[in-house]
Amino acid sequence: MIFAYISRQGSLEAVPITDGPIPEAAVWVDLISPTEADDTRAEAFAGISVPTREEMGEIEQSSRLYMEGGARYMTATILCGADTETPVMLAVTFILTRGRLITVRYGEPRAFPSVSNRLGKSCPTTVKGEDILIELLEAVVDRSADVLEQIGADVERISRRIFERSDGRENANQRYRAILSHIGRKEGLVSYARESLASLQRLISFLGADSDGSTIAKDGKANIKSMSRDVAGLSDYAAFIGDKLQFLLDATIGMVGLEQNNIIKIFAVLSVVLMPPTLIASIYGMNFQHMPELAETYGYPLALCAMVVSGILPYVFFKWRRWL
């Protein structure tokens, strides 16, 4: 699918292209899961080659940020679906050529409809592809900040749940299993966010280098510098959250170990408490013929009392030593 954005009367109008050439007045051409025919239309419109999905997925920097035929190719990895159970990393290619912007994507990052709606309401009549690209990058950075803020709040809730006192009604095994699951999901999301921020940092640096002599307005250059600082700050915050998640993971494993030790301690105490009564019962259960105590009238209740007392004394001793 192709959407051509044309500046008309102070707004950026989105025109879907299903057949025929792309209008020459378009300043932004958005290719969404393009077919071969869509790629051909975009190449005929801009006079450049459009990278395939396989080429967009290459990870080496020389394949993601480069100049070719007077056009600047920039591919970034963007986090999508952060609010869902299945977040994904999406490669998006931005191509700047002769004041026009061409974007190629195989998904729906939230920044794109946001920028499209905003520019559809109000847009400078002299808008260029560079201006739209900066708007898109700012929206992506803002979205990354929102995601990290939400992760930070979730991590605080996980921390409180780990260290809060249990009311005894919640099963400890299920509790720590759920906590470990939440930590794992948040750690994966933070890893995606850090990867996306690193990709954005490289793209912004490449864009700000202005090595091809393209004319980016002074305000645009200031925005690029500001974005670079924002991305650096977000990267530091993502690293902090990653370290905190590692601490919470270690703490949770430590809590699980304490729970296991408590269970083992209970069995150890029970074995010690029951050992003397078992010994007494074993002695008087041997049934030898010559055992003087067997002839005692009160031998049976005395043996029972001895077993009870021998069991209570170790328990009292453990309580006194605060081992229970």
TrEMBL record:
PANTHER family, alphabetized: MAGNESIUM TRANSPORT PROTEIN CORA
Family affiliation: Belongs to the CorA metal ion transporter (MIT) (TC 1.A.35) family.
Keywords: Cell inner membrane, Cell membrane, Ion transport, Magnesium, Membrane, Transmembrane, Transmembrane helix, Transport
The protein's name: Magnesium transport protein CorA
Species whose genome carries this gene: Xanthobacter flavus
Gene Ontology MF annotations: cobalt ion transmembrane transporter activity; magnesium ion transmembrane transporter activity; nickel cation transmembrane transporter activity
InterPro entries reported for this sequence: CorA_cytoplasmic_dom, CorA_MIT, CorA_TM1_TM2, MgTranspt_CorA/ZnTranspt_ZntB
Primary localization class, coarse: membrane
Residues annotated as transmembrane: 263-286, 298-318
SUPFAM superfamilies the record matches: CorA soluble domain-like (SSF143865), Magnesium transport protein CorA, transmembrane region (SSF144083)
GO cellular component, one term: plasma membrane
Subcellular location: Cell inner membrane
Pfam families linked to this entry: CorA (PF01544)
